[in-house]
Each structure stands twice: as C-alpha cells, then as structure tokens.
Amino acid sequence: MKSLDWRTHGIWLAVIVLALVAIPIAPGFLSPRNLLNLLRQAAPLGIVSLGITLVMVARRVDLSVGAIASLAAVMSAALMGGSDSRLPLALGSAVLMGAVVGWLNGLLVARGRLEPFVTTLGVAILLTGVNRLVTGGTAFGVLAPSFRKVLNGRWGSVPIVVVVLVLLIVVAAYVLHKTRFGRALYLTGANEAAAWLSGVKTRRAVIGAYVISGVTGAIAGILLLARYGISGNLIGEGYEFDALAAAVLGGTTFEGGKGSIAGTVAGVLLLSMAYTLVLMGGLSYHWQLIVRGGIIIGAVTLYAITQRKARS
Amino acid sequence: MILGSTAVRARTWLLALLLCLAAPAAAAQATVDTSGFAATPPWKIGVSAGYLSNSWVVFALQYIKYEASLHPEVGEIIVTDAGFDANKQAADIEDLLSQGIDLLIFWAVDNESVQPALDRAASQGVPIVSVGEPSPLPQVTSQASIDQYALGHLVAEHLATDMNGQGGVVAMLPLPGTYAATAQLEALNDVLAANPGMQLLSVEYGQWSRSESKRITENLLLRYPRIDGVFSPSGQMSLGIAEAFDEAGRLDEVTFSPGDEYNGWLKWVAEHGQGGAVTFPTRAGQVAMQLAVAILKGEPVPANEPVASEYVSPADNANWVELDRPDDWWATELPEDWKPAP
Amino acid sequence: MLGRPETPRDLRSQVGKGGRPAFIAVVLLIVVGTAASAPFATTGNALNVLRQVAPLGVLALGQTIVLLAGGIDLSVGMLIGLAVPLGALTMAGNDAQVVPAILVMLGLGLAVGIVNGVLVAWAGAHPFVLTFGMMALLQGVTFLLTNYRTVGKTAPSFAAFFTAEFGLPGAAWVLTVLALATGFVLRYTRLGRYLLATGSHAEYARRAGIRVKRTTLIAYVLSGLFAGFGAVLVLGRLQAGYPLAGSGFELQAIVAAILGGAAFSGGQGSVFGALAGALVLALVANLLNLLGVSAYLQQVVMGGIIVGVVGLRAATGRRRFLVHSWTNAKAP
Fold this sequence. Notes:
The complex is a heterotrimer.
Chain A: H1 6-25, H2 32-57, H3 65-80, H4 87-111, H5 116-135, H6 145-151, E1 154-155, E2 158-159, H7 160-178, H8 180-190, H9 192-197, H10 202-228, H11 239-249, H12 261-280, H13 285-311
Antiparallel strand pairs in A: 1-2
Helix pairs in contact in A: 1-12, 1-13, 2-7, 2-8, 2-10, 2-11, 2-12, 3-4, 3-5, 3-10, 4-10, 6-10, 7-8, 8-10, 11-12, 12-13
Chain B: H1 6-21, H2 24-29, E1 31-32, E2 43-49, H3 55-69, E3 74-81, H4 86-98, E4 103-107, H5 115-123, E5 128-132, E6 142-145, H6 148-162, E7 167-173, H7 179-194, E8 198-205, H8 210-223, E9 229-231, H9 235-247, E10 255-256, H10 263-272, E11 277-278, H11 284-297, E12 301-302, E13 304-306, E14 311-312
Parallel strand pairs in B: 2-3, 2-4, 4-5, 5-6, 6-13, 7-8, 7-9, 9-10
Antiparallel strand pairs in B: 1-12, 11-14
Chain C: H1 8-17, H2 20-36, H3 43-68, H4 76-91, H5 98-121, H6 127-146, H7 156-163, E1 165-166, E2 168-169, H8 170-188, H9 190-200, H10 202-207, H11 212-238, H12 249-259, H13 271-290, H14 295-316
Antiparallel strand pairs in C: 1-2
C-alpha cells in the first residue's frame, strides 16, 4: 500500500528529531496544551496542504489557494452581515466560489493545457485584484455573533478547528487512497498518456483535484476569518508556498504520481513546529528566519539522503 | 511645464539644505517659498503609493481625493500602487513623470530607496509632497507627517501610568526595520528608562497584522508565565493580542496600552473599558492635498506640517467608536460619500 | 518518453520556440500602447522601460538557465536582499570601493549558488523546497547584517553610471552584455548543450557521458551569479542598501522565464524568450500606469495577461501532454 511506503514516511523521522530537539529549548513544548495550540495554528495551512497534495499527485500545482482563502474570508464576512441567519448563505457562497475558481483552474490547466505554475499564479494575482476592487480596499462586513463563538470553541478540550482539520484529513486520505478518483489521480500523475489510453478520465481527475483544492482554500479562508476576525483583505497571502513546501517535504513530488496525505500532514507539522519552536525559544526575528530556513534546508537534505539510502 | 528652471531648482535645493541643517524644532516652523511652482489649472497630480494594502492608507487616500474635490483647479489624480516593492515605486514615479504631472504626492516603500526617483522629479521641476512618515529627503518640498516617536511616547506614557510604573511588558511593533517600528521602540525605551519598575520582556514584529500578532502572542503566552503589560500602538495588532490573552484565560493579568482609532480596536475598548487610543490620523492625506494645492498656487507652505496624534481615553471612546461598522475601518470625519466603499 | 525530443536537432529547434508568444505579446503591447497613450511611444518612455526591465531581465536569464537544466531557484530575490545592503556597506560612499563592492555582490551570488548547487546535485535535495528554505535563511542574515535598516552609501561614480545614458541607460547595457554572453554560451558552447541535455533527460545525458551533477551545479552557480548582477542593477536603481530590495523578484523572474518559453520540465527556454518575457511584465506595468488604470484594476489586468500569454503558448505550442518536473536529475 502506497501510504505505508517508507519513502513517504521518512519525514516523520525529521518531525520526531525536531520534537526531541525542542524539549531542552522549550520545556513546555510537548505539553498537551502547546501541542493543541500548535495544531490549532497549523489548521489553515494543513487544510490548504491537503488540496494541494491532490493536485500535485496529478502532476499539477495550485498557487491560487492563498488568494482564494483571502477572497473567501472577505466574501463570507460581507455576506453574513452580522446576522446568524445568513451564515449558511455566506459560508456556502464562499465555498462555492472556491469550487468555481478551482474548476476554472482545472479547465485552463487540463483542457487548455496551460502551464499550471504560472497560470495559477496569474489567477492568484487576478483574484487579489478582484478582491480589492470589490471591497474598495478595506475588509468590510460584520461577523455573525455565533460564527466565531462556534469555530473558536472547544469540543471537550480539543479546539473545534482541530476537529475540523482531523475530519478533513480523514476525508482526504479516504478520497486519495481508497477511491477510484484517487487512483485516477495517481495514474494521471505517473503517466498521463498511459492512464488516458487505459481508460482513465484524466482531465476529469485533474479538474476534480483543482475543485477540491479551491474548496480547501475557501475553508481555510473561513477558518482564518473565524480565528482572526476581519483583519484586512489579504489574510490568506503566502499560504500557497508554505502548503507547497509542506506537501513536498512530505514526499509529494512535482513530477506527480507520488505522495500521501500522511506525508503531507507530517510536512505541515514540521513547518508549524519550526515556526512555534523559534518563537518559544525566544529568538529575535532574524534568528527565527535563519533557524526556520536552516530547518527546512536541513530537513529536505536529510530527507533526500535517507531516501537514497532506503532505495539502495 | 517650464517650471524646472535652474534658478528655481537651486533655490529649492538651497532651502532644503538649510532645512536639513536647522534644528528639528526650527524646521517645523520653516516655510518654503513655492512661487516658482505656481501652475495653471487644471492640475494633474500624481500619487505614488508605496502600498495600498491596509485600511489606513485606503482612508488616507480617500482624504486626498476628498480634499481634491473641494478644489476645482485639480483636474486629475493618478494613483499608482507599488505593493511594498521599492523597484516598482521607482518605476511608478518615472511613469507618473512621463504623464506630465504637476505635483507628486507619495508615501515611500523605503525613504532612501525612493531618492533617485525623486531626484528625477525634482530635476523636472515637479514639487513633491510626502504623507505619513516624516521624510528627511531634500527633494521633498513639503510634508504632512505623523511623528511616530511622539505617538509611541504618548502610548508608552499612558501604559506606564495605567501600570503604575510596575511590571513586565511585551512590545508588538509593525514591520521590522520600518521607521514606525524603530521610532516606537525608541520612545518605549525612553519611557521605560524613566520607569525603572518596568521591564521589557520581548520585542516582536506583528507586521501590522491582526493574525500575525495573535499567532505570536499565543506563543509568548506559553513562554512567559506572567505578562503585565502590552505596548502596542497599532489597534489592529492590539486586537489580535487581546484575543490571544482572552483565549488563554489571562486577560485579567494584563494592561493594554492605547491602540489607535482602528474601529475594531475601538469596539474592544468600548467592551472592556481600558486601553484607549492614541490617534494615527488618516487626515494626513487631507493635509497633504492642502499643501499640494497651496504649492501649485505658489503660496508659501511650511516645510513640515505635522499632523498631531491625540489621546482618546476609554471614557471618550464612545464619541469615536462605530459599533455597526466593520472592524477594518477607521474613525474619521470624512463625509459619508467619501468613505471607502466597494 | 512521451513528447521528448529524439535527436540533437530536435533538441535545438525546440529550445527557442517557446519564446514566440511572449514576442507576439510584446509587439501587441507596443502597438496598443502607441495607439492608446501619447507618452508611450516617446524616447523618454522607451528609456524608462529599459531601466525598469533591466534587473528583472538579468534575473530572468539566470532563472532560464536553471529551468533549462531542469531546476528552479527561489532564492534569488532574498539573495538580492542580502547583496544590496552588503554592496552599499562595502561601497561606503567611496569611488575607490566601487569595484570591491561589485565583486562582493557577485561573490555572494557565487557562494549561494554553490551551496544550492551542491545540495541539489550531490545530496539530491529538492530544489524548490531547498531554495524556499534558503529564502528565509538569507532574509534572516540580511536583517542580522542591517539591523532592519537601510544601510551603507553608494559612491558618486556608481550613481552617475546609472543615471547617465550612453545611448542606452547604463543598466540596459549591462543587461545587453549579459544577454549576449548567455546566448553565446547556450548556443555555441559545450556547456550550453550539457545544460540542455541535463534538463531534457538527466539519465540519457549521464549515459551519454555528460557529468550531470557538475552541470547542475554550474546552473545554480550561474543563477546565483546573475542574481549578483541583478543586485548591482537594483543598487544602481535605488542607490540605497535597502534590506527588502529583492522581495518578490524570484516569482517575477520565474514568470518572465516561463512566459518566455522555459518550462519546469527542463530542456526548454532561450535568451530571446527570457528577455521577451521580462519585457511583457515591464510593458504591461508601464502601460497600465500610463493609461491611468486604477491600482486594483491593474492587478486584475496583470493576472489576466499572464494567464493569456501562457494560454497563447499552450495554443501555439506542440500538442503534447504537459509535463513539469524539477527533479529530472534524480530520474531513475
């Protein structure tokens, strides 16, 4: 089974090493409270990374998710207009927007065969422009009272966003590893021509992956809105690159056909731990950047070396 | 335009040079003779925004446009957005100059990096007005500036008073390296030096962002078992910090400094009755346009027109807060028609 | 392999073709600009555009080389961010220090290029994630060096070179010389063929006796070196050691290179295309400003044009299944 391949799981080793390193630096690091805090902070990135993983397994890439998240946050805030009764409309439209943008991305990339990296980057720039054009530059809208209360609440001692994250991880893992659609993504990514010749609907698979990616982008935007309130129009900026890095750290490759949800989750954990650790270690901002960069470089190098060892 | 005669240029430069030499207090009163800049209407005014990505500058820009609407001589305003890219700002200013603008209003991505582009404007005889951050540049004809040191000092003093001069403080500053961050930190350090009972626990950079400051604070709360005070002159960031304290159940242990007149923060002040605000007036945009109009009429203008911050106590807050407005909004005296709208 | 060139001649003829859509876009932009805006077709504006495009053009060349060899380099923006203050500090307002300062900037580019290249070629690190990490690291070092402030001072002669015009602006001459040199290397030298072969299919290249690892290393070293040249041009333009001077350049460079016919699958791209791609971005920005298009609408148009040119490329290019990978060097 793919998800148990050692290569896609080498990253967990890096996660464990980092956790061990963390203990002397930040004594409270492994406390349940901190770990839940870490997961809560990781939730938006984690959710975006799930969608990106699906797209990358099919040998594509999606840089528009950050802009989708921003637009989803601004849209749902504007549509809910301070009233609980409009919540379904607001959230529904935001998710629908994510799906539609994803579908358009998919059409351009799968049907029009446009180069995905630059195409989705262009779509991101365009969406950001639309976002600012429509809002006039400030994030208008007043949140519904129960919106933040529910999403910032806890189920027992577990934050609701962490519950949402775990649910979506399970769903994504099921979709990617257990369904025909998931298989189609792997086959498309591994060899699109062969997949198509053997009857796999490759275009439909790619478009489906982009739709899911757009939806995860929108969900991440909604969670960011709940977590941070209305805080400007560009709340999702930059998430696409962290998500890409997380997926690749977790063993998903740009040449497609490889990758797992478990690996991506490990990648997300690694990036989030690196972030939290440098903050808890009390490092000044420039050292935070240096250590964070060093961790990413170290992890990707170590990972490459162990992967080669494992192969030989 | 034939205004770029060498005589005028020499005079501007000489004046600017004198200004640089003069003491800051004297500079505030110095006036600039702008008779050489008088231009026949309709005027074309270029605005080079270093960034338009936060609500403060959006309001300031609305103030610029509003004030322009009061003067029929202003024919056209062209706005460019450099999106925090110093190279793009240089290009934007060049492009504005090719369109034959009569005057340039700008706020810089970086004050020093914009200098070569301003040199070109000055060499074409185009007067220059800066808005927001004080500009030390000799090319700048006049400026509507907000003194971040004075603002930071006022914020820090109110914090010290509210904390009775005792306790450990964390500081949340905007982007590292910016004038705002360095001036505010300097002011805070000066106030702390006068209050030996207070210690600076940590200096963080929340990048003007409510979400970033919340994330940082969540980690600060794990690092420090007790935080007595928060120095955060930006209300937008204060909001994120306050939420993190609230969620950790530690809101009671901490005293907040005044933020600014960001509506989301004013709502928080209304609810919790502490903190207050020291304004970071978006009206600076209006003052800049007033200076621009005076310059193009050839009337003498001050070399620096400071836009003063004022303290809003939690008790006065009711006059400022707009509870039915979004968080991402600024208390303003702009007429309703000129407020930012989709 | 599907859609792979079979013979060296195929390889050669394929390399430059991707630049045509960007070239068409440049022509269209010039036609539209001349018709729609009076100041557009003036000498003054043409010189402006050349000044504006020069740093991006140099970076697009460097990125094209890396992409040609099947890699990617995200570190160039922050490399400029470090090199610019370092150069300004070295120069310290002193004409005698101009040459050492330029050497420091280029040397830094070389050094970072070597680190990237060694880690990608020998350790097998994934170039996207590796250079993404390098971005953060370099920015941290920049802030450590500058204490977050704009530092240093340029020398009068250095400033004069960049404000003066020698027929063309000084920066445009630098771009021209680098473009000619790159074109020569790619077209007429063995290294050019090796880069192409490595990016087209690393395994075939290795079997053909090409030292793939060394070629990969050279690609990253050249990318770093070109970022060093880019830093010189940025310092020339801003005349200040601004620590965030390079932010965003990495993406612009990649977009310019891809618009100009490079591909993530490696083995494609040309000097002509890189310059055309960079010109598309510069001309769009210039024209939108000259037409007084509102700042927010500018973003919408810019995004649309990027998608449009990629679409043009897809429509005019050979019908083939899309492949994109940055890890050909590791092909089994």
